[in-house]
Write a sequence for this structure.
């Protein structure tokens, strides 16, 4: 049978091992670096260009003015472009005693539309 001193020595050794494990924990591995942002693959770019060209040709065939993206700032209103952004149609130039403007007739609603103006969205 082990003596009291042998049991205490074994417990001390076990305690020392546990404390050593707590003092020097293994650091977690560093996070993997994020992959670099890849440029648009050439095939996707070509597909995007082809789609844009097809849309422009279809709009031209339908008698619609092509829509251009503005880089920033306020978009021009429909009276400046002559194209109704609400109904996606080219408007006719009209004249009256107040001046010149663009508009189109909505047959299904039996009313005239002057398009959308900045500030009235």
């Amino acid at each position: 049978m082990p003596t009291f001193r042998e049991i205490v020595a074994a417990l001390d050794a076990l305690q020392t091992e546990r404390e050593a494990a707590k003092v020097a924990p293994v650091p977690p591995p560093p996070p993997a670096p994020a992959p670099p942002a890849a440029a648009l693959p050439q095939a996707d770019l070509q597909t995007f260009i082809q789609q844009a060209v097809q849309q422009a040709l279809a709009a031209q065939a339908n008698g619609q003015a092509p829509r251009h993206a503005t880089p920033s700032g306020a978009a021009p209103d429909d009276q400046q472009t002559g194209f109704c952004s609400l109904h996606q149609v080219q408007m006719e130039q009209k004249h009256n005693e107040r001046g010149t403007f663009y508009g189109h007739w909505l047959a299904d609603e039996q009313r005239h539309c002057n398009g959308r103006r900045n500030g009235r969205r």
About this structure: Residues 53 and 69 are 14 Å apart (CA to CA). The longest strand covers residues 99-106. The first helix runs from residue 4 to 23.
